[in-house]
Amino acid sequence: TQLKLMRQEQVDELRSLRTSFETFSQKMAEDGSKALIEALKEVIRDFNTQINEQFGENFKHLNASVEKLVIWQQQYKEELDKLQLMQKSSAEDLNNAASGLSLFIDRA
User: Fold this and answer.
1) Residue 35's pLDDT band (cuts 50, 70, 90)
2) CA angle at residue 78 from 76 to 83, to 5 degrees?
3) Region 81-107: what's the mean pLDDT?
4) Long-range pairs for 69-73 at CB < 8 Å and ≥24 separation?
5) Would the pLDDT of 65 be above 90?
């Protein structure tokens, strides 16, 4: 009977130990999953922050470049307008010179 009682006690202890281990392993799995999820959230948050900073910087450079391009286009347009006026003036001067030369040849 003593052996039987000891055996029953060992079986009860083993069941208790098994239950404790299952509870422990389940708790560890949950904690591990939570820690992994938190770590992934942190990595994603850092990645998004870095992407936003990088794209923000790139867009700042792009905006500055576009602004310079618009200024250059405006200056180029003004220069073209001046050149067109000078070309018209030169064409008129050449026409006047041709008329004067034609008149000179007619009189000569």
Assistant:
1) very high
2) 90
3) 93
4) none
5) yes
Kindly state the tokens that stand for 18. 């098994």
CA distance 18 to 26: 12
- Indicate the SS3 state at residue 51: helix
Q: What is the pLDDT of residues 47-58, one digit of tens each?
A: 999 888 888 888
The per-residue DSSP string of the chain comes to -HHHHHHHHHHHHHHHHHHHHHHHHHHHHHHHHHHHHHHHHHHHHHHHHHHHHHHHHHHHHHHHHHHHHHHHHHHHHHHHHHHHHHHHHHHHHHHHHHHHHHHHHHH-
What pLDDT was estimated at residue 24?
Answer: 95
Residue keyed to tokens 């281990």: 21
Compute the distance between CA of residue 28 and CA of residue 33 in angstroms, rounded to an integer: 8
State the pTM of this model: 0.46
